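Data availability (excerpt). All sequences and predicted C-alpha coordinate strings are deposited with the supplementary files. A representative entry, RING finger protein 148, is shown inline so that the format can be inspected without opening the archive.
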Amino acid sequence: MSLLRITPSVHSSVSSRLLRLSIFLLLSLPDTKGKAIWTAHLNITFQVGNQIISELGESGVFGNHSPLERVSGVVVLPEGWNQNACNPMTNFSRPERADSWLALIERGGCTFTHKINVAAEKGANGVIVYNYPGTGNRVFPMSHQGTENIVAVMIGNLKGLELLHLIQKGVYVTIIIEVGRMHMPWLSHYVISLFTFLAATVACLFLYCARRPRVPDSSTRRRRQIKADVNKAIGQLRLQVLKEGDKELDPDENNCVVCFDIYKPQDVVRILTCKHFFHKACIDPWLLAHRTCPICKCDILKT
Ligand SMILES: [Zn+2]
Ligand SMILES: [Zn+2]
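C-alpha coordinate line:
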Protein backbone atom coordinates (compact mmCIF):
# COMPACT_ATOMS: atom_id res chain seq x y z
CA MET A 1 0.00 0.00 0.00
CA SER A 2 2.90 2.33 0.63
CA LEU A 3 3.85 1.94 -3.02
CA LEU A 4 0.35 2.90 -4.04
CA ARG A 5 0.56 6.12 -2.07
CA ILE A 6 3.68 7.25 -3.97
CA THR A 7 1.88 7.42 -7.30
CA PRO A 8 -0.40 10.43 -6.65
CA SER A 9 2.40 12.44 -5.03
CA VAL A 10 4.69 11.90 -8.02
CA HIS A 11 1.73 12.76 -10.24
CA SER A 12 1.03 16.00 -8.40
CA SER A 13 4.70 17.05 -8.31
CA VAL A 14 5.00 16.46 -12.06
CA SER A 15 1.76 18.35 -12.66
CA SER A 16 2.81 21.26 -10.49
CA ARG A 17 6.19 21.44 -12.22
CA LEU A 18 4.50 21.46 -15.63
CA LEU A 19 2.05 24.09 -14.40
CA ARG A 20 4.86 26.32 -13.15
CA LEU A 21 6.66 25.94 -16.49
CA SER A 22 3.46 26.77 -18.37
CA ILE A 23 3.03 29.95 -16.32
CA PHE A 24 6.68 30.85 -16.97
CA LEU A 25 6.10 30.30 -20.69
CA LEU A 26 2.96 32.41 -20.70
CA LEU A 27 4.71 35.22 -18.82
CA SER A 28 7.57 35.12 -21.27
CA LEU A 29 5.29 35.49 -24.27
CA PRO A 30 5.70 38.85 -25.98
CA ASP A 31 3.13 41.48 -25.23
CA THR A 32 1.57 43.45 -28.03
CA LYS A 33 4.17 46.20 -27.52
CA GLY A 34 7.03 43.79 -28.31
CA LYS A 35 8.98 45.79 -30.84
CA ALA A 36 11.37 44.74 -33.51
CA ILE A 37 14.90 46.13 -33.38
CA TRP A 38 16.34 47.49 -36.61
CA THR A 39 20.06 47.49 -37.10
CA ALA A 40 21.76 50.37 -38.86
CA HIS A 41 24.56 49.89 -41.38
CA LEU A 42 27.06 52.71 -41.15
CA ASN A 43 29.07 53.27 -44.30
CA ILE A 44 31.93 55.40 -42.98
CA THR A 45 34.28 57.20 -45.35
CA PHE A 46 37.24 59.43 -44.47
CA GLN A 47 40.50 60.56 -45.96
CA VAL A 48 43.91 59.98 -44.37
CA GLY A 49 46.66 61.61 -46.41
CA ASN A 50 45.93 60.69 -49.98
CA GLN A 51 44.09 57.55 -49.03
CA ILE A 52 40.32 57.36 -48.86
CA ILE A 53 39.20 54.78 -46.34
CA SER A 54 35.74 53.33 -46.44
CA GLU A 55 34.25 50.84 -44.05
CA LEU A 56 30.84 49.25 -43.94
CA GLY A 57 29.51 47.55 -40.89
CA GLU A 58 26.42 46.84 -38.92
CA SER A 59 27.47 49.28 -36.26
CA GLY A 60 24.32 50.50 -34.66
CA VAL A 61 20.61 50.26 -34.03
CA PHE A 62 17.84 52.65 -34.88
CA GLY A 63 16.09 54.39 -32.04
CA ASN A 64 12.57 53.25 -31.24
CA HIS A 65 11.12 56.56 -32.47
CA SER A 66 13.41 57.06 -35.44
CA PRO A 67 12.16 56.94 -39.02
CA LEU A 68 13.63 53.89 -40.78
CA GLU A 69 15.30 55.84 -43.55
CA ARG A 70 18.61 56.15 -45.30
CA VAL A 71 20.41 59.33 -44.37
CA SER A 72 23.92 60.59 -45.08
CA GLY A 73 26.16 63.51 -44.33
CA VAL A 74 29.37 64.76 -42.84
CA VAL A 75 29.77 63.92 -39.18
CA VAL A 76 29.83 66.96 -36.91
CA LEU A 77 30.67 67.24 -33.20
CA PRO A 78 29.11 69.53 -30.62
CA GLU A 79 31.33 72.54 -29.92
CA GLY A 80 32.88 73.03 -26.50
CA TRP A 81 34.36 70.70 -23.94
CA ASN A 82 31.20 68.64 -23.56
CA GLN A 83 30.08 66.13 -26.19
CA ASN A 84 26.64 65.32 -24.78
CA ALA A 85 24.73 68.21 -26.46
CA CYS A 86 22.48 68.68 -23.45
CA ASN A 87 22.86 72.43 -23.41
CA PRO A 88 20.21 73.93 -25.71
CA MET A 89 22.79 76.57 -26.79
CA THR A 90 25.15 73.85 -28.09
CA ASN A 91 26.59 74.71 -31.49
CA PHE A 92 27.89 72.26 -34.05
CA SER A 93 31.06 72.99 -36.00
CA ARG A 94 29.52 72.27 -39.35
CA PRO A 95 31.85 72.58 -42.38
CA GLU A 96 30.78 75.21 -44.90
CA ARG A 97 30.74 72.82 -47.84
CA ALA A 98 28.48 70.27 -46.17
CA ASP A 99 24.90 70.18 -47.42
CA SER A 100 23.83 67.43 -45.10
CA TRP A 101 25.28 66.65 -41.69
CA LEU A 102 24.94 64.16 -38.88
CA ALA A 103 25.52 65.07 -35.25
CA LEU A 104 27.77 62.72 -33.25
CA ILE A 105 26.73 62.99 -29.61
CA GLU A 106 27.78 61.25 -26.44
CA ARG A 107 25.12 59.45 -24.38
CA GLY A 108 24.26 60.84 -20.94
CA GLY A 109 23.68 64.15 -19.17
CA CYS A 110 20.08 64.44 -20.38
CA THR A 111 17.42 62.42 -22.19
CA PHE A 112 17.85 61.10 -25.70
CA THR A 113 14.87 63.23 -26.75
CA HIS A 114 16.54 66.36 -25.40
CA LYS A 115 19.89 65.95 -27.17
CA ILE A 116 18.33 64.79 -30.43
CA ASN A 117 16.09 67.87 -30.39
CA VAL A 118 19.10 70.14 -29.75
CA ALA A 119 20.81 68.73 -32.87
CA ALA A 120 17.59 68.78 -34.92
CA GLU A 121 17.02 72.46 -34.07
CA LYS A 122 20.50 73.25 -35.32
CA GLY A 123 19.59 71.58 -38.62
CA ALA A 124 21.14 68.14 -38.33
CA ASN A 125 19.87 65.58 -40.82
CA GLY A 126 20.48 62.73 -38.44
CA VAL A 127 21.85 62.00 -34.98
CA ILE A 128 24.37 59.34 -33.98
CA VAL A 129 24.54 58.78 -30.24
CA TYR A 130 27.42 56.72 -28.88
CA ASN A 131 27.08 54.71 -25.67
CA TYR A 132 28.69 55.36 -22.26
CA PRO A 133 32.42 54.73 -21.73
CA GLY A 134 33.09 51.15 -20.62
CA THR A 135 30.21 49.64 -22.57
CA GLY A 136 32.39 48.45 -25.46
CA ASN A 137 30.34 47.83 -28.56
CA ARG A 138 27.04 47.36 -26.76
CA VAL A 139 24.03 49.19 -28.18
CA PHE A 140 20.28 49.23 -27.62
CA PRO A 141 17.30 50.94 -29.26
CA MET A 142 16.93 54.36 -27.68
CA SER A 143 13.60 55.71 -26.57
CA HIS A 144 13.21 59.31 -27.76
CA GLN A 145 9.57 60.17 -28.05
CA GLY A 146 8.86 63.50 -29.72
CA THR A 147 11.72 63.39 -32.23
CA GLU A 148 9.98 61.28 -34.84
CA ASN A 149 11.13 63.38 -37.81
CA ILE A 150 14.86 62.83 -37.52
CA VAL A 151 16.85 59.64 -37.97
CA ALA A 152 18.54 58.67 -34.71
CA VAL A 153 20.81 55.69 -34.25
CA MET A 154 22.95 54.44 -31.39
CA ILE A 155 26.46 53.11 -31.92
CA GLY A 156 28.87 51.51 -29.47
CA ASN A 157 31.22 53.56 -27.35
CA LEU A 158 34.36 52.24 -29.08
CA LYS A 159 33.12 53.11 -32.56
CA GLY A 160 31.92 56.51 -31.26
CA LEU A 161 35.32 57.35 -29.75
CA GLU A 162 37.07 56.24 -32.95
CA LEU A 163 34.98 58.69 -34.96
CA LEU A 164 35.36 61.40 -32.30
CA HIS A 165 39.16 61.19 -32.35
CA LEU A 166 39.28 61.24 -36.16
CA ILE A 167 37.11 64.35 -36.34
CA GLN A 168 38.98 66.06 -33.48
CA LYS A 169 42.15 65.55 -35.56
CA GLY A 170 40.45 67.44 -38.38
CA VAL A 171 39.58 64.45 -40.54
CA TYR A 172 36.50 64.92 -42.70
CA VAL A 173 34.27 61.94 -42.00
CA THR A 174 31.10 61.15 -43.90
CA ILE A 175 28.62 58.48 -43.01
CA ILE A 176 25.74 56.90 -44.88
CA ILE A 177 23.27 55.32 -42.47
CA GLU A 178 21.29 52.54 -44.07
CA VAL A 179 18.50 50.42 -42.70
CA GLY A 180 19.84 46.98 -41.82
CA ARG A 181 18.09 43.88 -40.61
CA MET A 182 15.18 43.45 -38.28
CA HIS A 183 15.68 41.51 -35.05
CA MET A 184 12.95 40.23 -32.78
CA PRO A 185 14.58 39.70 -29.41
CA TRP A 186 11.28 38.56 -27.88
CA LEU A 187 10.96 35.94 -30.64
CA SER A 188 14.27 34.30 -29.76
CA HIS A 189 13.29 34.59 -26.08
CA TYR A 190 10.01 32.86 -26.94
CA VAL A 191 11.76 30.09 -28.87
CA ILE A 192 14.23 29.54 -26.00
CA SER A 193 11.33 29.42 -23.52
CA LEU A 194 9.48 26.94 -25.71
CA PHE A 195 12.51 24.67 -25.98
CA THR A 196 13.10 24.90 -22.24
CA PHE A 197 9.49 23.97 -21.64
CA LEU A 198 9.61 20.99 -24.02
CA ALA A 199 12.90 19.73 -22.60
CA ALA A 200 11.55 20.04 -19.04
CA THR A 201 8.36 18.22 -20.03
CA VAL A 202 10.31 15.34 -21.57
CA ALA A 203 12.62 15.21 -18.53
CA CYS A 204 9.64 15.18 -16.13
CA LEU A 205 7.90 12.42 -18.07
CA PHE A 206 11.13 10.41 -18.16
CA LEU A 207 11.62 10.85 -14.42
CA TYR A 208 8.00 10.02 -13.76
CA CYS A 209 8.21 6.82 -15.83
CA ALA A 210 11.51 5.85 -14.21
CA ARG A 211 10.24 6.40 -10.67
CA ARG A 212 6.73 5.04 -11.17
CA PRO A 213 6.38 1.97 -9.00
CA ARG A 214 5.32 -1.13 -10.86
CA VAL A 215 2.15 -1.97 -8.98
CA PRO A 216 0.62 -5.19 -10.36
CA ASP A 217 -3.14 -5.20 -10.68
CA SER A 218 -5.19 -7.56 -8.53
CA SER A 219 -5.77 -10.23 -11.21
CA THR A 220 -2.02 -10.41 -11.95
CA ARG A 221 -1.28 -10.75 -8.25
CA ARG A 222 -3.90 -13.51 -7.93
CA ARG A 223 -2.44 -15.43 -10.89
CA ARG A 224 1.03 -15.18 -9.37
CA GLN A 225 -0.24 -16.42 -6.04
CA ILE A 226 -1.98 -19.44 -7.65
CA LYS A 227 1.15 -20.30 -9.62
CA ALA A 228 3.19 -20.21 -6.43
CA ASP A 229 0.63 -22.43 -4.66
CA VAL A 230 0.62 -24.92 -7.57
CA ASN A 231 4.42 -25.08 -7.55
CA LYS A 232 4.37 -25.71 -3.84
CA ALA A 233 1.68 -28.41 -4.18
CA ILE A 234 3.62 -30.15 -7.00
CA GLY A 235 6.72 -30.13 -4.83
CA GLN A 236 4.82 -31.91 -2.06
CA LEU A 237 3.62 -34.75 -4.34
CA ARG A 238 5.51 -37.99 -3.96
CA LEU A 239 8.13 -39.10 -6.52
CA GLN A 240 9.09 -42.67 -7.23
CA VAL A 241 11.82 -44.29 -9.35
CA LEU A 242 10.39 -47.40 -11.03
CA LYS A 243 12.35 -50.63 -10.86
CA GLU A 244 12.01 -54.17 -12.22
CA GLY A 245 9.09 -55.99 -10.63
CA ASP A 246 7.03 -52.86 -9.80
CA LYS A 247 3.36 -53.36 -10.66
CA GLU A 248 3.39 -49.89 -12.31
CA LEU A 249 5.52 -51.43 -15.11
CA ASP A 250 2.69 -53.68 -16.32
CA PRO A 251 2.07 -52.37 -19.84
CA ASP A 252 -1.43 -53.81 -19.94
CA GLU A 253 -2.41 -51.93 -16.83
CA ASN A 254 -0.52 -48.64 -17.03
CA ASN A 255 0.83 -46.16 -19.42
CA CYS A 256 1.39 -42.39 -19.10
CA VAL A 257 -1.76 -40.67 -20.42
CA VAL A 258 0.21 -37.50 -21.12
CA CYS A 259 2.79 -39.02 -23.49
CA PHE A 260 1.00 -42.42 -24.08
CA ASP A 261 4.32 -44.18 -23.48
CA ILE A 262 4.67 -47.29 -21.34
CA TYR A 263 6.66 -47.08 -18.11
CA LYS A 264 10.17 -48.52 -17.99
CA PRO A 265 12.51 -49.29 -15.11
CA GLN A 266 14.37 -46.17 -13.88
CA ASP A 267 11.51 -43.85 -15.01
CA VAL A 268 10.75 -41.18 -12.45
CA VAL A 269 7.03 -40.90 -11.84
CA ARG A 270 5.03 -38.47 -9.74
CA ILE A 271 2.14 -39.85 -7.77
CA LEU A 272 -0.82 -37.53 -7.29
CA THR A 273 -3.06 -37.49 -4.18
CA CYS A 274 -5.69 -39.37 -6.24
CA LYS A 275 -3.08 -42.19 -6.62
CA HIS A 276 -2.80 -41.67 -10.37
CA PHE A 277 0.81 -41.48 -11.45
CA PHE A 278 2.60 -40.14 -14.53
CA HIS A 279 6.12 -39.44 -15.79
CA LYS A 280 7.48 -36.58 -13.72
CA ALA A 281 8.65 -34.86 -16.92
CA CYS A 282 5.11 -35.17 -18.34
CA ILE A 283 2.91 -34.32 -15.38
CA ASP A 284 4.78 -31.36 -13.89
CA PRO A 285 4.19 -29.03 -16.89
CA TRP A 286 0.63 -30.38 -17.20
CA LEU A 287 -0.13 -29.55 -13.55
CA LEU A 288 1.39 -26.10 -13.88
CA ALA A 289 -0.99 -25.46 -16.77
CA HIS A 290 -4.13 -27.31 -15.51
CA ARG A 291 -3.74 -27.98 -11.77
CA THR A 292 -5.81 -31.17 -12.19
CA CYS A 293 -5.15 -34.87 -12.69
CA PRO A 294 -5.45 -35.72 -16.43
CA ILE A 295 -7.47 -38.83 -15.58
CA CYS A 296 -9.83 -37.97 -12.71
CA LYS A 297 -9.65 -34.15 -12.79
CA CYS A 298 -8.96 -33.85 -9.07
CA ASP A 299 -7.55 -30.43 -8.22
CA ILE A 300 -4.11 -30.64 -6.59
CA LEU A 301 -4.81 -27.44 -4.61
CA LYS A 302 -7.98 -28.89 -3.10
CA THR A 303 -6.69 -32.25 -2.01
ZN1 LIG B 1 4.63 -39.59 -19.87
ZN1 LIG C 1 -6.38 -38.84 -10.68
